[in-house]
Amino acid sequence: MARPKADFPPPEELRALADGEGRLALRVTPGARHEGIELGEGVVLVKVRVKPQDGKANDAVLELLARALGLATSRLRLLRGATGRDKLVQID
Question: For residues 66 and 63, what is the distance between their CA atoms, to the nearest angstrom?
Fold first, then answer.
């Protein structure tokens, strides 16, 4: 059975949550049942299927966010939160 597509909010709504320097606050749920991105109050809620091992969940978060924004993954950089659920990502 094929995996369902991830749900994304419109890219302009995601960009609106970034601060003046292009930083976006994320709250990540690794090992989730379904992948997707939701908008919270001042934070973006990201759910990925990948377990948090050896940075694989961080890579999955950046890939999912890049798809939602319509950008290449190389345009995103993890600034803070490599080992926690709360992350700060720079959008170039």
Answer: 5
